[in-house]
Write a structure and sequence with these properties.
single chain, alpha/beta, TIM Barrel, 19 strands, binds N-(aminocarbonyl)-beta-alanine, binds zinc ion
């Protein structure tokens, strides 16, 4: 007779808050016991010499999505979540993306149908590209009530960008309905101006992708979205912070007490603008937005991780094959940098690169790694403590980590459906040995046991972590229309 369905035995349990030596007992997909010498499990994982961590939460990834910059993602929910699981991730937050002139609800229904093939748990951010009266006042409130508690907006990309007036409408409904707005912050007009001039000067190659969007376009947009959020006293999450300038704006806001959260991504830890400086076919592999920056920016990002400006690391997995069909070269194999699909794949490499560059190189400690890759996202997006911690009562989403394992990343060891990795040849120390999704072992030392349909949608009710702090710049609250009496 076994006491548990599964016991993870003999490892070092690492949570964001504490480290302890204990076994983990699992029953019916949940953690039911933490302790020494637990009784037998029907299934046992030997974690001796390994770290037992909360499964990763990747709170920014694009799956099976039409791109904002042309092309279509080279990843189904089955392949994307399989790849995530092999990389130690047990929950993803991906997107249901509205395009201009579309209503939102049918799109969300489509994404739910496609996502039924997921191998791990998932939930959605709703991309708002056309905030009409109906979308803002009827569809978004209804969809938030159904558990889609985060919205995503773009300040750039012709197909998606919102004006400041439109952004305020989105922040307004988010505040009314207790949702979090996530932002792609780059100054659109400045990028368009630079792009036009670069193309006029016949500077078409991928290296000029970085020139059309220098750090100042990100700094300006971060500063502007922070001010717009402050006008309503509404928290926001700034996506994919790539450079020192943007992080400085966020830090300044945080020091004023504003609830501004932010993430960065592994591509900004290990790629630089020099990676774009190759022939078009190769350079396209590194075209993403914001653009890869400099080594100085990489170190600045780690500084901001250490002081808490940046709270989580996501993949921004945005996979395109190197082809002319729906991939990087959807606009033709002679396409200039401005018409190459933006994004890099990275669901599976997110945790290993962050561990290797962070923990193995001594930049952060183990607990910060757990906070960055799992716990902070769980708190920020209303999944905690069901996800993001190894605790009795929580889902048995677990990653057993081999901190010693040295791996050279190559395309053939990965499980995504994209036909390349931008990290080809990168040597990392640390790799997930075992991934467990709600008690099911989905990855075990090289053996994949993912089951399409295993993953469940997680509806997210209101939660306190993103409650506004209530300090408005005037006595008038533009959301409730109330005026506070001045004393
Ligand atoms: O280049 C990127 N990041 N592509 C994906 C869409 C986005 O901007 O997040
Ligand atoms: Zn973005
Ligand atoms: Zn993205």
């Amino acid at each position: 007779m076994s006491d548990y369905d599964l016991v993870v035995r003999g490892g070092t349990v690492v949570n964001a808050a504490e480290i302890s030596r204990c076994d983990v007992g699992v029953r019916d997909g949940r953690i039911v016991a933490l302790g020494e010498n637990l009784g037998p499990g029907a299934n046992e994982i030997d974690a001796t010499g390994r770290y037992v961590m909360p499964g990763g939460i990747d709170s920014h990834c694009h799956i099976d999505q039409q791109s904002s910059t042309g092309g279509r993602n080279a990843e189904s929910f089955e392949s994307g979540t399989r790849s995530a699981a092999c990389g130690g991730t047990t929950t993803i937050i991906c997107f249901a993306a509205q395009e201009k002139d579309e209503s939102l609800t049918p799109i969300v229904t489509d994404y739910h149908r496609w996502a039924k093939q997921s191998c791990i748990d998932y939930t959605f951010h709703l991309i708002i590209s056309d905030p009409t009266e109906e979308v803002i006042n009827e569809e978004v409130p209804r969809l938030i009530d159904q558990g889609h508690r985060s919205l995503k907006i773009f300040m750039t990309y012709p197909k998606n960008r919102l004006s400041d007036a439109e952004i305020l409408k989105v922040l307004d409904v988010a505040k009314r309905k207790q949702a979090l707005v996530c932002v792609h912050a780059e100054n659109h007009d400045a990028i368009m101006y630079m792009t036009e001039k670069l193309l006029k000067a016949e500077k078409n190659s991928t290296r000029y992708h970085a020139w059309c969007k220098p750090p100042l376009v990100e700094r300006e947009a971060c500063s502007r979205i922070i001010m717009l959020a402050e006008l309503l006293a509404q928290p926001i999450q700034i996506f994919h912070v790539s450079c020192e300038e943007a992080a400085e704006e966020i830090r300044r806001a945080q020091r004023r007490g504003l609830k501004i959260f932010s993430e960065t991504c592994p591509q900004y830890f290990v790629l630089t603008a020099r990676d774009l400086d190759r022939d078009q076919r190769e350079g396209a592999k590194f075209v993403c937005s914001p653009a890869p920056r400099s080594e100085g920016d990489q170190e600045a990002l780690w500084d901001h991780v250490r002081i808490g400006t940046i709270g989580n690391v996501t993949s921004d997995h945005a996979p395109y094959n190197i082809d002319e069909l729906e991939g990087k070269f959807w606009a033709g194999d002679n396409a200039p940098f401005s018409q190459i699909a933006n994004g890099v794949p990275g669901l599976e490499t997110r945790m290993p690169i962050t561990f290797s560059e962070g923990v193995a190189k001594g930049r952060i400690d183990l607990q910060t790694f757990v906070a960055l890759t799992s716990t902070n996202a769980a708190k920020l997006f209303g999944l905690y403590p069901q996800k993001g911690t190894i605790a009795v009562g929580g889902d048995a989403d677990i990653c057993v980590w081999d901190a010693e394992r040295e791996v050279t990343i190559t395309q053939d060891i990965l499980h995504h459906d994209t036909d390349y990795t931008p990290y080809d040849g990168l040597e990392v120390t640390g790799w997930p040995a075992v991934t467990i999704s709600r008690g099911k072992v989905v990855w075990n030392d090289g053996v994949v046991n993912c089951e399409p349909g295993w993953g469940r949608f997680i509806a997210r009710p209101p939660y306190d972590y993103i409650a506004p702090r209530g300090i408005l710049p005037t006595p008038f609250d533009p959301v409730t229309l109330e005026t506070r009496e001045e004393v």
